[in-house]
Every structure is written in C-alpha cells, then in structure tokens.
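Intended use. Records such as the Putative GDSL-like Lipase/Acylhydrolase superfamily protein entry shown here are meant for training and evaluating sequence-to-structure methods. They are not intended to support clinical decisions.
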Amino acid sequence: MYLPYMMKPLIISIKLSSSKSSLVIFLFSFLLLGDHSRARITLPEGVTVPAVIAFGDSIVDQGANNNLKTVVKANFPPYGQDFPDQMPTGRFTNNKTPADMIAEELGIKEILPAYLDPSIDNKEYLTGVSFASGGSGYDPQTPKIVDVLSFDDQLKQFREYIEKLKGMVGEEKTQFILENSLFLVVAGSDDLANTYFTIGIRKLEYDVPSYAGLMASSASNFLQDIYKLGARRIAVFGAPPIGCVPSQRTLGGGGLRACAEEYNQAAQIYNSKLQPVTQYLNSTLAQSRIVYIDIYNPLLDIIENPLQYGIEVVDKGCCGTGNIEVAILCNKLLPTCPDDSKYLFWDSYHPTNKGYTILVNEVLGKYVDDFF
Ligand SMILES: *[C@@H]1O[C@H](CO)[C@@H](O)[C@H](O)[C@H]1NC(C)=O
C-alpha cells in the first residue's frame, strides 16, 4: 500500500505508544478520508461525488432571484433568520435549503451558492452551484408570469458554467465532475399551484391530465438536455401535496382550510406521469442514474402525523398569519411565530428548516444507493 509522506510519522507513533493508538487511528482515518470525513452518509467504496448542481424553483433557489425584477424574492427579513449571521440570502426559508443540506450530507460543502451570486468565488464551481429560480416551472408560461428564470435560461447558464469549468480545470476533469456529480431537478409545484389553479391561464386549453402531460414532457426534454451536456446522476423530484400547503388551503380548502383535494389529485396525476418518464430515460440513456424522488408521501405523512416528527403546526406558516404570506408578502413588518422548529412551514408555501431536515434525511436514506 502506498502511504503518503505525511502518514509515516503516524505509523511510527502507533509502534511507539499503544495507549495512544486510538487517537492515532482517529487521526489516521481523518487524513485518509480528507475533506469527505464530514460526510454524514456513507457512500459506496470508491464513489466520489465532486459537486451538487441544482435546477428548478424556490425549493433550491439559493439567491438567483435577488437581482431580477420580480416579486418572487426572499432576500429580506424574516427570511434567513436562522441562517448563519441571520442573513437573508434569497433562500425561501428560515435557514438552509435542501440543496445546501444535500451538499452538506455528502460532505461536499455546507452552503451551495447561487450561480448568479455576484460575489461568488470561482473555486465554488468545482463543488457545485444552483441555477434554480423561485417561481419557475416546466411550463414555459410559469416563469414568464413572474419574470423569473425559465429552464431554458437555467440551461443557458449551465452551458456558460461548463465553459468556465473547462477554463479552470480542462476538458477531461470537467467531464469527470459532470459525470459524477449529483444533479437536483426540483420543479412542478408552481406550474400546478400558480399557473394552472390560481391564475388559471392554462385551464381553457388543458384539463389536469393533459397539463400534467405537458409538464412531464417538458421535464423529459430538460433531463435529456442536461444528459447531453454530461449529467449522469440526476434526482428528479416529484410534486408535493400542493393542496396541503398553507396558501393553497386558504385558496382552495374552504372555510376550514382543509387540504385542497383537487390540487393534491393534480399533483398525484403529474407524479404518475413523471415517474415513468424518469424510468424510461434511466433505462435508455447509457450510464445514467435518473431517479424519481417521491416527496408527496413523506410530506403528507408529516402533515397527517406531525407529533411523530416533533412538529405542532402544519396548516399555517410561521410568517405573519401563516395563511397566505410568501415572498414579498412575508416581510419584516410581520411578526413570526415564537419557535419555527414547531412549524412544518416557514411561510405559506415553503417548509421550515425543521421540515426540510426531516424530508432530506428520509430522501437520502431511501434513494442514495440508486445513484451508484
Ligand atoms: C436505472 O438503470 C439502471 C441500469 O442502467 C438500473 O440498475 C437501476 O435500477 C435503474 N434505476 C431506477 C431508479 O430505475
């Protein structure tokens, strides 16, 4: 076995002192594992995940909308109130997003920056960025309505990012990074909740199954596009039970603010079309691992059994009345709940850090092996 130069004194000290051997073994494994010793999940031997790269909507928007002319923003208090330095960064929650959490669990880094962050250090490109833009969706109308970045815009930036990577580390290493990184594709809920149900512009042309078909085929095109550019390990998130998020209870859940069943059914219909699309691509695109991630059932289980997860409030967000406030409507003029860790939702649409932590742990536990 080849031992790097720096290991040799450690081997000698094992021989010198058996009483200190456990400390030495600890140091030894620390050195061997290097940066990845921070990983909280165990990857199969020999597997490297150099970066996390995210596309989609507000669930994994790391601040892309901050400098756009849109109302879909979160770069002001109380957003970010539990983030390091209580910084509102444009993340649509009180702390980190699932994109940060997944990068952290994989031992890559603690904060996944937005590609559009004007102060980004180029070194960050090597370990991943997010292209996601809050309010976006698979239906090209969805980002247009709120002036945010479409999937086409995100793809264009991804191409630009690849060129930057090539400039930094060359063609071959760039390809290695793309082929081995974990790609997160999170969208669909804004298409259904905003474009289809709330604004209603698509209702004239499409019933729910045909609209869900449009979404799934747009998702399919996008997945093929990033595959062609080098992505192989791709996590594709299904729609959550959108009828149960606080704002949709208010808009479609009647006087008692029940879950809006029609919205939940639409999410299920969409998921039933997205899942076979991912399976088909996974089996036809060589070397790909394209995995559908069910978020519907884990989130619904928290909503139905909150106490099992240490959560007390699931039908209101922590910000303001909790019934409707999101983005610019959730701002520093409003009070927040005293303890956001008792709430599943931070605003009327997005989970709290507590909610995201539960979901990310479940999802990683269930799906991580499917990527390798
Ligand atoms: C994806 O395809 C591979 C074979 O290429 C297979 O081993 C794996 O189980 C598939 N994954 C899913 C989630 O269908």
